Amino acid sequence: MWIEKYSVGVKSMDDQHVNLIEILNELHTAMVKGQAHSVAGPLLNKLTDYTHEHFIDEEKLMESIKYPGLADQRAEHRALAAKIEEFVAHYEQGDQSIYPQLLHFLDHWLVNHMQTADKKYSQWLNERGVH
Fold it and tell me: Please, what sign has the CA dihedral across residues 77, 41, 38, 2?
């Protein structure tokens, strides 16, 4: 669930973060209903595609205002993408035990990333007129 403390103060990025959280909520709902396996593939694809788009947008924005922490952000983004690919590989091998791990990992990573790394760029962007 999106709460205001997750906001990074940049509407376009907040909107994308909301969408990422909605994907996590979809996976959680499917798990609770016992439908994780039937929806996990499409949700993993959606998550992979959306995070890729989000990272490109976020990095372009940081690049455009010469954010000094861009290299660190890129490294974190690549690490998450690699971890998601691991989950996808497990899913494709039929490993149904990944769903709780995937949900926990993504929830923890996303919230932690928004609260730490993304908060660092928000002030830099806001000071340069990006809201």
Answer: positive
